Amino acid sequence: MKLMVQLSPCGGSGRHLIAYETAVHLAMRRGGGKYLIMDISSNAVSPLDIRGCYLGYLMGRYHPSEAIVKIPRHDNFYYTRFITPTCIKDLNYNLGLVNSRLEEIISKMAIEIKDLIKRNYTVIITASYDILTMNLIEELMRGPLSFIMDSEPVLISNENIVCIKESIRLMEELNLRSKNLIVNKVPAAEIMRLRDEVISLNGLNLAVLIPLSRQLYFRHFAHYMSVAIKANTNPHARTISHLFDKILRILEGTEEGGKVLALIGGLINETDLIPSVNEGAKIKIF
């Protein structure tokens, strides 16, 4: 996978950590490479200080060093924001103008992302829901980058069933063939109930339930340590790391989908997704 999209319709939901852990585990599976996490939201707080923005770089107003920052402790991991309040002010843009020039912007993005991929980068696009995000995603999916999107967008939700249903609705709106859902920050007391609700949702290829965990938390992103690194000494971090490996195998197609993966009691609980609540579900725990 060289280009991935992770979309959170309800905002928050730890999507920056999900994107970061995805990059770390891809790097471990591949034995290296370079990774760019690109946040294309217009309404989110950045986890890292960044002066410029990727849009300003595309338009020739910022040097790459102003628009893209290195992620601490990783020589080959980078982060960028597509747009920021400071950037909009510097460019004398507004979101309406950005939306009106989407075709031009996507064309420039395609050239840059193709160049990054040629230089051995993997690009992980992360976004909360807003009009700009949805317009960009739709253009990406049917535009010049569609042929390198190895896996379709992954939806990231919180535990609220309304948010989960909104994620499913967006999957239908985007006409996704492979529907993949990660539900993050699920209270431990709710995870069994939520698993039973998710099992019967039609059309999903993969659903992942991740409980609230100190292992996936940061006050300052610059100080956060991946579960893949903490796995050496922390059994719970090791299990979460195994879960991310399993998610990537399913998204890459090297492992069969049609599953709900849930962390329950420190173990990965694997349940087959079923088309209706009247059919039985096979459960594995490992």
From TrEMBL:
It comes from the Archaea. InterPro entries: P-loop_NTPase. This is AAA domain-containing protein. It comes from Ignicoccus islandicus DSM 13165. The lineage of its organism: Archaea, Thermoproteota, Thermoprotei, Desulfurococcales, Desulfurococcaceae.
